[in-house]
Amino acid sequence: MGVYQQLESEYDYEIVEEFLNHFTMMLSSMERLIISLENHASYKNSINELFRMFHTIKAATAYLKITPIHKITLLAEDILSECRELEGAASEALMEWLLLLNDQLHNYKNDLENDQESFSKLNKNIIKIPRNYLR
Questions:
Q1: Using an 8 Å Cβ cutoff, are 104 and 54 in contact?
Q2: Is 126 exposed, middle or buried (0-12, 13-18, 19+ CB in 10 A)?
Q3: What are phi and psi of 4, to 5 degrees?
Q4: Whole-angstrom Cα distance, residue 89 to residue 95?
Q5: CA distances (Å), 129 to each of 80, 97, 100, 114, 132, in order?
Q6: pLDDT of 33
Q7: How many domains in the chain?
Q8: Coil, strand, or helix at residue 90?
Q9: What's the whole-model pTM score?
Q10: Could you list the residue range(s) of the whole structural domain that residue 65 is in?
């Protein structure tokens, strides 16, 4: 039984399908928001929107007990919470780290869609949190 079938066995099909649809929608706009962080004028709006996305995914994956996704979104939410207090343009290191998270989340989404036996391994560079959030 793959990761998707496991979810379907524990939760109503509609809940699982709705999660996957919303997860896919959020991921489709995440990269654009991350790249827009380099612009001082759009930083605040983009960081707040990214925070909301990660928060929403975190809450849904906590409910569905999707631990790998929950853990990295919890980490991202913590970092973005700090970033929300800042003004300016994001550092290259922060943007690269967020893009790495985005890639990892895409891998997890693909694992769900393809009903893989388990989730993809975590890219170890994700634990290397950038020191400077702004340029």
A1: no
A2: middle
A3: -70, -45
A4: 10
A5: 11, 7, 11, 30, 9
A6: 97
A7: 1
A8: strand
A9: 0.95
A10: 3-127
Among 36, 28, 72, 34, smallest CA distance to 54 is for 72
The CA distance from 44 to 3, in Å, is 36
Which CATH number characterizes residue 27's domain?
Answer: 1.20.120.160
Asked whether residue 133 is assigned to any structural domain, the reply reads: no
Q: Select from 8, 36, 42 the least CA-distant residue to 94.
A: 36
Is residue 20, in this structure, part of any structural domain at all? Answer: yes
Residue ranges in the chain assigned as alpha helix (H): 3-10, 13-36, 40-64, 67-83, 92-113
Q: pLDDT tens digits for 77-95? A: 999 999 999 999 999 999 9
Distance, CA of 72 to CA of 59 (rounded, Å): 12
pLDDT band at 135, cuts 50/70/90? confident
